[in-house]
Design a protein that fits this description.
By secondary structure, the chain is mainly beta. It has one domain: Nucleic acid-binding proteins (OB fold (Dihydrolipoamide Acetyltransferase, E2P)). It has 2 helices and 6 strands, in the order ββββαββα. A 5-stranded mixed β-barrel has the order 1-3-4-6-5. β5 and β6 form a beta hairpin. The radius of gyration is 16 Å and the shape is globular. The chain starts with a strand and ends in a 24-residue tail after the last helix. The C terminus is likely disordered.
């Protein structure tokens, strides 16, 4: 079974595009998912690329912004491509079946629906989703490279 559930915060605003053949919406964004760390150690995160399709892609593009906390349910998909130098680059992404908007963009978690059971409330969520969340993701680098001694195998 290929199934994943993640909770994290957007590292930047989502990017919406449409497929050339049938104009299906596709939105891509990256979330930072905190790793559990021992007390006194530096905070760490994994940066996971998310792809959302169809109507849900348009909704994510419209209401999500950098710093917004989301829960993503989907599947892991791997792939590869050749970069400009001809080197094969391997990718791992999550293709979302469902994206839940959690908390609010300004960090007030009580305003959110919580969990995968809530419905989307356009009036409430549109007000908070686009208000920005300055500074939250500044604690994380644009990419994360694990130190060799942090790898558990």
């Amino acid at each position: 079974m290929n199934s994943v559930i993640l909770i994290g915060r957007l590292t930047r605003d989502p990017e919406l595009s449409y497929t050339p053949n049938n104009q299906t919406a596709v939105t891509r964004f990256t979330i930072a998912v905190d790793r559990p760390v021992a007390q006194g150690r530096e905070r760490q995160a994994d940066f996971i690329r998310i792809t959302v399709w169809g109507k849900q892609a348009e909704t994510c593009d419209r209401y999500l912004s950098k710093g917004r906390q989301v829960a993503v349910m989907g599947r892991i998909q791997t792939g590869s491509y050749k970069n400009r130098e001809g080197v094969t680059v391997y990718t791992t992404d999550v293709v979302a079946d469902r994206v839940e908007f959690l908390g609010s963009a300004n960090g007030n978690e009580s305003a959110g629906r919580g969990g995968f059971g809530g419905g989307f409330n356009e009036s409430r969520d549109s007000q908070t989703a686009n208000s920005g969340f300055s500074g939250l993701m500044d604690d994380y680098p644009d990419s994360f490279e694990a130190a060799e001694d942090d790898i558990p195998f």
